[in-house]
Specification:
2 domains, single chain, phosphoprotein, transcription, Rossmann fold, two-stranded antiparallel ribbon, alpha/beta, five-stranded parallel beta sheet, CheY-like_superfamily, Arc Repressor Mutant, subunit A
Amino acid sequence: MAEILVVDDEIGIRELLSEILGDEGHSVLLADCAQQARKVRDENPLDLVLLDIWMPDTDGVTLLKEWAAGGKLTMPVIMMSGHATIDTAVEATRIGALDFLEKPIALQKLLKAVEQGLARGKAARLQAQTEARLASVPEVVPLPRPPAPEPLAGATVEFRPVAAQPGAAFLPTTGGAPVSGQPGAAIALRDLPLDLPLREARDAFERAYFEHHLAREMGSMTRVAEKTGLERTHLYRKLKQLGIDLSRGIWRRNQSH
């Protein structure tokens, strides 16, 4: 789970991004102006910032310059705007912004940019930690390596084959059908809503199917989409159609109980 700050003066944008990123398992902080963004940045170890360019007090590019000059640009920053020019995007990238998203932001572009930004930030932190550890280790003079022992005359080396582990079998229970990918698991026919009309029975099964994967993946829409083979936008629509609650954090809380 990452700590992400969303800075935008439009409340609708803030709420939408908060909902989407919250569904992905991230902790989202919000700011509606540069002054509030400065305060949140100073009080929290942020992993990523989504920063709007046009704001009422200080524009996003100026705030980005301020962070860079003050040594506070320690996290990836993705700029957002619906009216910025190419020159503005280039300037923001030159200062240190990782990416630029044009409003209205497409869902797939947003999630891809966030994923790349978090990966870049993690790699930078690991590199900094490695360099710090290496700098603190005193120089060690290596000892001469002893010669390798020679094999004894007439000695032989025996290789023993390792017994292969038997593959997991699908073991259906009485009156049930095996579930693919779950060794030994089965859905009993008596548990299926067979007495309902076909449409209602299908909806009931799909609701249980997606709730199972949401609980198993702790609410991560990225992993649920991969497991179910659905494109993410289609997955969102399907879950809302089935009436599945996507409240932020509900699946992580259920998993922990």
